[in-house]
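Researcher: I've got a protein sequence and the SMILES for zinc ion. Could you write out the 3D structure of the bound complex as C-alpha cells? I'd like something to compare against our soaking experiments later this week.
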Amino acid sequence: MKVDSRRICQLFREMADFLSIKGENPFRIRAYEKAAEAIEHLPGDLENLYKKGELKNIPGIGKGMIEKIGTILHTGTLPAYEELKKEIPRGVVELLSIPEMGPKTVKLLYEKVGIKNIEDLEKFVNSQKLRHLPGMGAKTEENIKRGIELYKASRSRILLGKALPMVKEVMEELKKKASSLIERISTAGSLRRGKETIGDVDILVSSRKPSLVIDSFVELPFVKDVLAKGETKSSILTHQGLQIDLRVVEPDSFGAALQYFTGSKSHNIVLRERAIKRGLKINEYGVFTEKGEKKAGETEEGIYRYLDLSYIPPELRENRGEFEAAERGKLPHLIEEREIKGDLHIHTEASDGSNSIEELIEKAREKNYEYIGITDHSSSLRVGRGLSREALLSQIKKIERINSHLKGFQVLKGSEVDILKDGTLDYPDEILRRLDIVIIALHTGFKQDRETITNRIIKAMQNPYAQILAHPTGRLLGEREAYSLNMEKVLEVAKDRGIWLEINAQPQRLDLTDVWIMEAKKRGIKLVINTDAHHKEGLDMISLGVITARRGWLEKKDVINTLTLNELSKLLCKK
Ligand SMILES: [Zn+2]
Ligand SMILES: [Zn+2]
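Model: Sure. Here is the predicted complex with zinc ion in place.
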C-alpha cells in the first residue's frame, strides 16, 4: 500500500499530542516530534529510503521510529495510535492548539472535569469555575479566555493569498485521482468572488458517480481530519488548518449549484426576487416554472440569461449595482492579468528586498512584462533599510547602465519615498526630479488623529514630483486596522493633481480596497496595480491585485500599468 509521507508526519505529530496529554515521558514525545520534522524535510521519497535501508542515516529518525515507519508503510497505521485515538477524543487534542493551554492543563480539565472540546472549555471558563481548580486562579482563567478568542479568530478567516495556492493544489490532486469521474470542477463561495479573507473553502464538482468522488476526496494526502462525509457532500480539514467543503452535483445542475454556492447572499436574494417576479423558482438545482418545468441549470450563463441578465462575473456579485448594469448590458469588461505590462513598485537587495535588479528583470521578462519600476525605500525608513541620497544616485546610474543594454524592456528609476511627520517628502526635489517613478508612502505615525494623517498625506500629494500613493489606507489584514483617514478628501486631491492610487497586491494589504476602488473609478482617478515585491517570486502576487481590481469594477483603461512601455513613457514625459 502506498502511504503518503505527509500522512506519516501527521500521525507522528498526533502521537506526540496524545502522549503529552497522557503525561508520558517527554523523551518519547520528543522522539515522535523529531521524526515528524525530519520526514517533513526529507531529501527524497520516504518509502524508497526505507526500502534501501537509508533512513538510519537521517538525523532525527531513531531505530524505534524506523520500525514504526515500516509498520505504517505496511498497514497504513500504528496499533498504539489507533488505541489512543479511541481513548482521547479529537476535541481534546484540539485544546492543545489554544494559546495558554499546555498538555497538563488539558489533561486536568479532561480527566477531572470532563471537558472534551472548545465549546465545553468556553462554557467552563465563562462560568468562572476554572479559577477554583488546583493551581489555577482568576489570572489563568482570564489568559485562557483570551487564548480561546485568539484561536477562534485565527481559525475562522484565512488570507485569500494563502488559501488560493492551497486550494489549487487540492483541486489538481483531486482531478488527477478522480479524473474519469469528474466532469467539471470549480471553487465557489467567497474564494471564487475573490474576497480578501475567506472562511471555509467550497469546491463544487459535477459527476455521475458522486460517492466515488467523495471517497477519493477524503483520501487526499492533504486531509488531516474528515469532519463530515455523506453521499454527495464532505468536509475536511487540511494539515494547514483550512476547512474545505466538497459538493458533488448532477451535471445538469452544475451551473445552478455554482451560482447558488458562489453567493454572495445579498446578490442571491435579489436574483431570487427577480425570478419570483417572473413567476419562476430558482434554487441550487436550476430555474423552474410554476409547473416545475426546468428552464436552466447546466451553466451559470444560462441562468442569468433566462432571467434577462448578461453574465455577471463572480467578483461583482455583491449587490453593488451589478443587476442594473447587467440589465442594460453595461457591465464592465473586467481587467485581466494578461493585460498587465509591468510592475511599478519593487524592492531590491539595496534596501529590504532580496534580489538584484538583474534577477528581477529576468523574472519580469518571463511574465512578458515590458517594464519594472525599482522603488527601494528612502533614507529615513530605517526598518526598511532605506537608501541614502548617495546610494540612490548610484542606483540611478546603475539602472541607466543596465537599460543601455536592454531591448524591448526598460527599468524605471524610482523610489518609495517616505512621507515625513510634517508631510514633506524624504528626498529633496533635485533628487526626485531625476526619477521616473515617485511613489509616496506613509510608514510612520499610524496612530495620529484623522485630521493630522489626512493633512500629511494631502500635503505630500501636492509635491510636484509625487505620482503614486502607495497602500493608501495602511491596513494589514489580521494585524492592523486602516489608519483613520478622510479618504474622500484624498480622492479629491488625487483627482485634482492626477495622482495614481495604488492597489497593493501584498496578500495582507490588498489596499486600496474594493469599495474605494469603485469610488476612485467613479471620479475618474487612475489606479496602478503593484506587487510591492521584496523578492522575485513576489511578482506573481500581481494576480491578487488584479482580483481586487476586478472587485472594484476596473477595466484595462482604468489601470496605468496596462499601458505599453511606449504609452507609459509618453505619459511620464508629460508629467
Ligand atoms: Zn510601503
Ligand atoms: Zn514598498
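Model: The pocket of zinc ion (ligand 2) is lined by residues 345, 347, 416, 532 (CB under 6 Å). The mean pLDDT is 93.
Researcher: Great, I'll pass this along to the crystallography team.
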